[in-house]
Design brief:
- Among the domains are: 151 residues, 2-Layer Sandwich (D-Amino Acid Oxidase, Chain A, domain 2), CATH 3.30.9; 100 residues.
- Strands 1, 2, 9, 10, 11, 12, 19 and 20 form an eight-stranded mixed β-sheet that branches.
- 47% of the residues are buried.
- The chain is α+β, with helices and mostly antiparallel strands.
- A hairpin with a 2-residue loop joins strand 11 and strand 12.
- The chain is 31% helix and 22% strand.
- Helix 1 packs across helix 8 and helix 2 crosses helix 8.
Length: 489
């Protein structure tokens, strides 16, 4: 590969894809590269999925402003990109009268940030909102504009719409080094080189390493590890809102939240580590999460847990803020780094800010009159009425074959996920798009059938199918061939 572009975005997480979609609104030749086999495979796939109201971030910080701005943009994004999104509201719960001044301080900070409709509620009204709260709860800050979203479905939606509007999305493409020329940069990847006038560094946990490729050595990203419990859908309706304890200086505390898919999610804790690849869970960490959650919801137990996972947040400890700026050391190089929480909430506003920076660098941007903001809607068979399901099956019988029983995912949905723009190319990529394998049995029933569908749709051998790209092959060789080999030896 040897190609040129006006603009190269490094990183296919929610921020990189949001930037790509925003800039597709203008007449630019844009390429986005992602080192993994799918968009949203890093920080964006493993977080709480919250669109924060914006009361926590300091008003003086970039993220304080962008959180609130981004939150407001999600209603329009949902209509255009058709991803699951719900404004459930959030409660920050105090269990001691001594914590009420802290709630009042958070309320005032939220007002400075421009968060609407905040209020502190007490007494019976609190338990009318959440009946299972700890009986010792005395008050809560209520933020009705807080919302929940599926972070990886959002990232896929952004990437699809960007691709439909002309952005070239290159997966399995890692930046190895960057050569700075007078009026452009040459980015050397594992698949060849890309020449670009402007490079946007949205590499998440690795943004500091990409910055170092052009001689910028004052960005230091620290991984902040957080573990989670995922509960079965039968517990998803146990609460109505996202529930926080009163936060500390390091963490918002152990959150308990419903998800847009009907599960209950508990976590995360916060531990600073050195290894950017450490997504292991620990028995101690998971136990601490459960005990922390029980402080606000005593009825929680291990019963109903169907999965655990770990996410990493890219923290910039020096300021605790986002870095979104054109480099003053390298012309045409924009850093978008340190995007930890509330990065998901801020993503569309971050994209707008990057657009403004780019317009200044290029001396203006020309609108792309052919830009289509709408994404072809994804069929979610389980959400259709019986009449709608019957009609769909009549039109396409593949939607009448259920592959994942736990999540009611059909063959038609899986085939569609593979053949859409920036389509699924692994078992987990299918999982992120359709939820096949995310139910109680965690893929025990549907896993082999998903593999068969990938083989047929991608035109590959069974031994080429991966769990999640790279070397994660599921089947190493055919059993019959292996036995014959043993006999011949």
């Amino acid at each position: 590969m040897n190609k040129e572009a006006d603009l190269l975005i490094i990183g296919g997480g929610v921020v990189g894809t949001a930037i790509a979609r925003e800039l597709a609104k203008y007449k630019l030749d844009i390429t986005l590269i992602e080192k993994k086999s799918d968009v949203g495979s890093g920080v964006s796939k493993a977080n709480t999925g919250l669109i924060h109201a914006g009361f926590n971030a300091e008003a003086s910080k970039i993220k304080g402003r962008l959180n609130v701005e981004g939150n407001k943009m999600y209603d329009q994004l949902k209509e255009e990109l058709k991803f699951p999104f719900e404004r459930r509201g959030a409660l920050v719960v105090a269990q001691d009268e001594d914590d009420i001044p802290r709630l009042e301080s958070i309320l005032e900070n939220g007002k400075k940030n421009g968060v609407p409709d905040l209020e502190i509620i007490k007494g019976e009204k609190l338990f009318e909102l959440e009946a299972d709260l700890n009986p010792d709860s005395v008050a809560a800050l209520y933020a009705p504009t807080a919302a929940i979203v599926c972070p990886y479905e959002l990232t896929v939606a952004l990437a699809e719409n960007a691709a439909v509007n002309g952005v070239e999305v290159l997966l399995n493409t890692a930046a190895k080094s960057i050569e700075v020329k007078k009026d452009h940069k040459v980015v050397y990847t594992n698949r060849g080189q890309i020449k670009a006038k402007v490079v946007i560094n949205a590499a998440g946990l690795y943004a500091d390493e990409v910055a170092k490729m052009v001689g910028i050595d004052d960005i230091d990203i620290t991984p902040r590890k957080g573990e989670y419990h995922v509960y079965d859908k039968k517990l998803g309706s146990q609460i109505n809102h996202t529930i926080f304890p009163v936060p500390t200086g390091v963490s918002k505390g152990i959150v308990v939240t419903p998800t847009v898919d009907g599960n209950l999610l508990v976590g995360p804790n916060a531990q600073e580590i050195d290894d950017k690849t450490d997504i292991s869970t620990t028995s101690q960490g998971l136990e601490n999460i459960l005990q922390g959650a029980k402080k606000t919801l005593p009825k929680l137990s291990r019963r109903g847990v169907i999965n655990q996972f770990t996410g990493l947040r890219p923290a910039y400890k020096e300021t605790g803020d986002f870095i979104i700026e054109a480099s003053d050391k390298v012309d045409g190089f924009i850093n978008v780094a340190g995007i930890q929480s509330p990065g998901l909430s801020s993503a569309p506003a971050i994209a707008k800010m990057v657009r403004e920076i780019l317009a200044e660098i290029l001396g203006g941007l020309e609108a792309n009159k052919d830009f289509n903001p709408y994404r072809q809607e994804v069929v979610r068979f389980r959400e259709l009425s019986v009449q709608e399901q019957a009609k769909l099956i009549k039109e396409d019988p593949r939607y009448g074959e259920v592959i994942c029983r736990c999540e009611m995912v059909t063959k038609g949905e899986i085939i569609d996920s593979i053949n859409r723009p920036v389509g699924a190319n692994s078992v987990r990529a299918v999982r992120r798009r359709t939820r096949a394998g995310m139910g109680r049995c965690q893929g025990g029933f549907c896993g082999p059938r998903v593999v068969d569908i990938l083989v047929k749709e991608l035109g590959i051998d069974h031994t080429e199918v991966t769990e999640d790209g790279g070397d994660s092959r599921i089947l190493l060789e055919r059993a019959k061939e292996s036995l014959l080999k043993e006999v011949s030896e």
